[in-house]
Amino acid sequence: MAAKRDGPTAAVVVDPDGKVSGWSEGGRLLLGWTAEETVGRPVTDLWADRPSGLPENLGIGSDPTGVVPLRHRDGSTVDAVLTTHPLRGADGRVLGRVVTVQPWGRRPVIADRAFEQCPFALGVYDPELRFLWVNASACRVMAHSEEQVLGEKYRELFPELDDMAYTDRLSEVARTGEPARLITVFRPLGSNYANAWATSMWPVRDAEGKVRAVANWGFDMSAEYWARQRLLILNKASGGIGLTLDVIGTAQELATTPVPGFADLVTVDLFDEVLRGEEPPSASAFTSGDTITLSRAAQHSAKEDTDRAPGPATPVSHPPGSVAARCMATGRSTVELAAQPGEGGEWAFGPGLAADPAHWPPGNPLIEGSIAADGLTGRITVPLRARGALLGVVVFSRLDRPEAFTADDLILAEEMTAKAAVAIDNARRYSRERTTALTLQRSLLPQGLPDQKAVEAASRYLPAGTGAEVGGDWFDVVPLSGARVALVVGDVVGHGLHASAGMGRLRTAVRTLADVDLPPDELLTHLDDLVLHLAGELQPAGRFEPTGESGATCLYTVYDPVSRRFTLASAGHPLPLIISPDGTRTPVPAHPGPPLGIGGLPFEATELELPEGSLLALYTDGLVESRERDVDQRIAELLRALNHSATSLEALCDTVMDAMLPERRTDDAALLLARTHALDPRHVADLAVEPDPAQVPRARKFAVDQVDAWGLEEASFVTELVVSELVTNAIRYGAPPIRLRLIRDTSLICEVFDGSNTAPHLRRARAFDEGGRGLLLVAQLTQGWGTRHTTNGKTIWCAQALT
To answer: Which of 157, 358, 378, 632 could join 152 via S-S bond, C-beta 3.0 to 4.6 A?
Structure first.
């Protein structure tokens, strides 16, 4: 059969009487009959089953419409296509006919029919891009018949459809002889929708290999193309929505992501409670008959002049019966399409199966001609819901584009809205927790620095940016006995409410230990034990969840304005920066100890003598940490920003924070600046006391004379009683050396030092006791009293308020 199918074409000459007068060699190869066996016989002897209506003289025309079965010499049947051509003499008389016989299965014949009936658009062009042949599908795409395009140049015939990428690629194939593939998007004639076409092009060569033509085929892949575009938009939404934990920012991301690929105008309206970080109202609180008032959180349009600039949300009301109110009440989306009927009066849906009304959810789409008055061709309204709560409503609108929304577009709009709803709800919850943590932290930080004369101080605290949680940074200024002052700064590990609560605990503990007048290294040791105990409490027990991380850093310093001694100890915290009055940096010969919560490791105290007017800078790591520079570079930048000659520490704080902190901060930052003062030597009086009770009157007289010299005669009586009691106790219960010191500061301070480490205790004497009333008397007559221990003894002090 292969020989018959691929055999040559037979040529038969038939005279006017219908008899064979000529027989080609192709006839013998095709049907097996020789010329001697066929010439002179009626041509109808070749029919295996003569088709009805076929005339005896083969007047069947030049374009047969069917297949004629012919009889092979071996008795088999050969299906063939017959084409007849009349033979005329010089006078025009018909002398006979030439019949061309081609087997139906032969490749040129079957290929012609296959290509003509192919559902893909097929075409052949000469090297100048003139049409040589097109099939019926290509004619439908071009809205032209084959007779109208043959011999015409593509670019001249369809200038409005000339896609340079397509025609240039055809020319390139004709020039290079290399096949090519291309995907083009264009709007066919008579269509309101842009279609995507996949096209393959290849050269057609002759026997010598010369390119004689260019052929191409193309098929409409609009459904696949637009499905891919929707996936790209959804992928863009996945990467572009929810980048920040900010309600307004997330709403703006939802508004900008679909424009212009999916919609031309997007609005996002939210309840005011959502914007404030509160719980949204219950869905049962309103019905479709209520006017719902929201706030326009975001709006973005393909036209830049209609974009809503970032700022406070503006109120928007959705009246009863409106589409938005109905969608929020029912929880279902609604698609509105402007009236654009097709050629037959039916609705003109977009490409793809999803455009079929059968694929729409119930109630959609609504054919709403009134939206055309607003310049809209379609609108999708989607309620914004997350975790069962209604947050607001989103509206996607198409303006001046003919493509209407499809059912697949509705799915995409709902997917983007659902993702944004979760992100907005997360931002709302985060905003609420952040506000709570920030309020807690600010309430635990000092609201104002205490009044004292040892240093001039100023401070700043800035929480992390909106994309990060509140941290556990803190600072404090604590007045101490002897006109001294403690400067403290610390940082709790972690973020959020737990870090704020931990910061409050540590700040309270530091103040308590500072009141005991512990040295810096000993204070940090006690604080380290406290953090270890807190870490044990943080372990989950029963059904309770762990409350966060443990651990902290702390820098504790003490400045004495009498001796100008500055003592410090660090638990894993950056050391302070000290700038002398002449602008040079004073090095701190110390190393930070381990962070709090490690346990078992010692802390070391370092003591410096500072010139009066030195500038101290205590800070947390959030001020100097950076991804672009190392810590040493950032500390150098901080030193450059610390202008030692600044007259206002408050202004200097602002300058430093502006210079060091970026707009998008990921960690809290605290800064405490202090300029040291020295107490006037004339406001300090010392007296060495021999361990003899006879020295008590001498000490009393020294104190009264000094108080009178300071012009504080009204304090003389109390001072005489206090000095008498404290010096007597030191001589009786203490150990030499004994020293009395009076300090005039914001209060009148009396200190008695002795070499014993035994601390006195306040007792309440009974009616007939002969002792035990001394310290009680001191406590009643003074503003405060206490004991502080040193390496070689202790100091008992008390302070009187000065009017």
So the answer is: 157
- What torsion do the CA atoms of 234, 236, 239, 242 make, to the nearest 10 degrees? -70
- Identify which has the larger pLDDT, 268 or 545: 268
pLDDT in tens, 685-695: 999 999 898 88
740's CB contacts (< 8 A; 6+ apart) are 686, 687, 688, 689, 699, 702, 703, 723, 727, 750, 751, 752
CA proximity to 794, closest of 746, 742, 735, 750: 735
Rounded to a whole number of angstroms, the CA Rg of the chain reads 49
Query: In whole angstroms, what separates CA 453 from the centre of its chain?
Result: 49
The yes-or-no verdict on residue 354 having pLDDT over 60 is: no
More confident residue, 557 or 44: 557
Burial 530-542 (b: 16+ CB within 10 A, else e): bbbebeeeeeeee
- Quote the CA–CA distance of 474 and 453 in Å, as a whole number: 22
Residue by residue, what is the 3-state secondary structure of 500-523?
HHHHHHHHHHHHHHHHCCCCHHHH
CA angle 597/600/606 to nearest 5° reads 85
Q: In what order do the strands lie in the sheet with 585-586?
A: 455-462, 669-676, 615-619, 577-579, 585-586
pLDDT given at position 349? 44
- Interhelix angle 407-444/222-240, nearest 10 degrees: 0
> Cβ distance 169 to 122 under 8 Å?
no
CA distances from 509 to 217, 513, 528 (A): 82, 6, 11
- Helix ranges restricted to H, 331-406: none
Euclidean distance between the first and the last CA atom of the chain, given in angstroms as a whole number = 129
What letter represents residue 113's amino acid?
Answer: R
CA–CA gap between residue 744 and residue 34 (Å, rounded):
144
DSSP 109: H
The rounded distance, in Å, linking the Cα atoms of 412 and 362 is: 17
Mean pLDDT, rounded, of the chain:
82
The 10s digit of each residue's pLDDT in 589-617 is: 888 889 988 877 889 999 999 999 999 99
